[in-house]
Structure prediction request, 295 residues.
Amino acid sequence: MPLTPNQTLTLLNSLGHAPNKKLGQNFLIDGNIVRKSIELAEIVDQSPVVEIGPGLGTLSEAILATGADLYAVEKDTKLVAHLKDTLIKTHHNFDLIEMDCLKSPLGNCPHQAGSKPFKIVANLPYAVATPWLEMVLNTALPERMVLMLQKEAADRYSASPKTKNLGSISIFLQSAYEIHSCHNVSANCFFPKPKVDSTLIRLDKKETPVYYTSEVKAFIRRIFSQRRKQLFSLCKKDSFEGAEAWVETLIAKGTSSKVRAQEINLQSWQLLGHTQLDHPQNDHTNNDHTNNVSN
Prediction:
C-alpha cells in the first residue's frame, strides 16, 4: 500500500532526500489510484512491464505483486539506492537502471526489437512526458501504456480536431494508439501536492499503427507552429517535398483550401504516414524529442 503523506515525509527525511521539482518528484500516496493503474494495465504473470521514474517504489511494488518482470528507469541516485536496498533485494524480477529516461526510454527491457509484447505503466513527470513518449513511438511499440500525466499533457494527447489542444503529438500518438480511458486524479493523491490535477490514461496499440518518418514529423510540427495560418499557403512555402501534393489531395477530396492545421482530421494526416506491423524507423539518432515540447 502507498505510504501516507507523513510516512512519505519520514522516509524521505531518513534518506536525506528532498523532492526534486526539476525531476517532477510528486510521490503517489493514494492506494485507489495504484489499484486502478494495475487494473487498467491487465498485467499477467511474467509479462514484461516498463516503469519510468519508480521513485520510492509504490507503483513498482504493486506491479511486482502481479508476477510481472519489471524493467525500471530512475534518474535520482538516492532513490535508486533506496530501491536497491528494498525491492530489488526481495524481488528477482526487478531490473533497475540509473539513467535519464530520455537516454534509455525503455530501460533494459529485452523486447525493444518487437520480440515479445510488453507494457508500460508509469507516473510521468510533466517535463519529460512528451519527449519521452516520442522516443517510445520510435521504438517497438508497447501493446499498452497506462500513464499518469498532468492534465494538460493528457488533454493534448487525446485532443480532437477543431480543438485548441490538438497538436503534432496528438497526431503521432493517436495514429498508433487508441485512447480507451481517461480518469481525473486529484492533486491530493500526491506528496508533495502539485499545483495542478493529473489524468490517468490507458492507450492500446492499434492493430495497424501508422508511423511517420522524421522528415514528415518535422513538417507536421512546422505546420502546427503556425496554426493560425491557412494550410494550403503553408504547404506551398514549406521545404517538405510532398507538402504541396498532400494538401492538393486533401482539396481534391473536398477539404477547403482555407483550412487550418487543427481543423484537419486524423485520417488526412495519416496520408503522410505509413503502416507496418513490426516497427517504424528506429531513428533515435535523429533526436526528434528536442523539438516537440511546445506543440
